[in-house]
């Protein structure tokens, strides 16, 4: 350990409790909740609805796309885990970008991740309102309003209630997928249901081969696949409110491989073995199609309920993360000072309220003008979400280099194979962005990004002029570094 490390380590130990109180959050998320937040973050509408489009584009090879992308996600999460064990903070992505890349990178990352969840919250609460019309003829705006108010209220009661909601939302999704896998396994082995006579694993290669649309078709689905994994990094935002982050966070991150293997790869293998890939259509849930093929009429209702919970889960996560991200920006002088205020329960009231209000405005816009303009805004979610992944990888690479030189303490949860695995993940994300540029349906995301970047650059210049300290990583910031206790 170098003299710099010794000085910083001693100072950190002395100020450990003070640093915790400065952050102000309460550690109300237990191991059970963290585990389900991690699991639920990887399961959303991208699987329940979006997989239908991916199957129609790539056929059975979509399974391989999910497997490879899942490996990349694991590399990203292990990179995040290494950073979290070095310094666990609620505004993790923004904080790490600020420290290892620069104040401007932290500014961009914080505001971009905030926007990602606001946009996601807008789309998901609107989707949830739409799903309600399956059962009842309720005005869409009314359902959206009720859902937003309920989730907003839950996020202002306690972080434990947020975790409990996420636990049960995730439980519904996990139960649905496991149930589908077991039903398909029964069809394949016992042969019950209308699909019993035709179900066979040979469907994975008999209808045009495993790559019926060629390798190019598989590559073009990567953007859909990566979109399905967005929000898996949310577990990093919970670092400042986990009861025992040293144990719970590594355990949650290490479950990524089997989560993806079971919930994505396993589920698709079973579904595509029961139903030939040619029977799936874009815009139709593969789960619904499989239920219909098996003659189970309740399938559509079940999937509608599951997708409803997935949408509410995503909106709930948006409420949680936006308030924390705004507060972190404000603490660094890169956002309005009002966002730093916490309730007696340690909750970011003003930041959460501001974000929730914007979500309501988005619902109103979608109701009044549900045209292409709104879709352009929604498309930004993919590229903004991947920006957080890019920053995680870049920061981990730079942190590991400093730690290896003895300038910083080593993390207790090193990413295996890093920095090579991190470079591989970065190259993979770059390839996905190129694929987005080729695909006319996703290209609009790349048009939105430069405009948002320009807005942030101008805002940062104004901020730097008014408050130079907010645009620099100071000695006071270095004192905030502390090992995980």
UniProtKB/TrEMBL annotation:
Give positions of region: Disordered: 1-24
Keyword 4Fe-4S listed? The answer is no
User: Key word Lyase present in the record?
Assistant: no
Write out the transmembrane intervals: 36-55, 61-80, 100-120, 140-162, 174-195, 215-235, 256-275, 295-315, 347-367, 373-399, 420-438, 444-463
Entry-linked Gene3D superfamilies: Amino acid/polyamine transporter I (1.20.1740.10)
Alphabetical keyword list: Amino-acid transport, Cell membrane, Membrane, Transmembrane, Transmembrane helix, Transport
What family is reported? Belongs to the amino acid-polyamine-organocation (APC) superfamily. Amino acid transporter (AAT) (TC 2.A.3.1) family.
Q: What is the official name of this protein in its record? A: Amino acid permease
Q: Which organism is it from?
A: Streptomyces maoxianensis
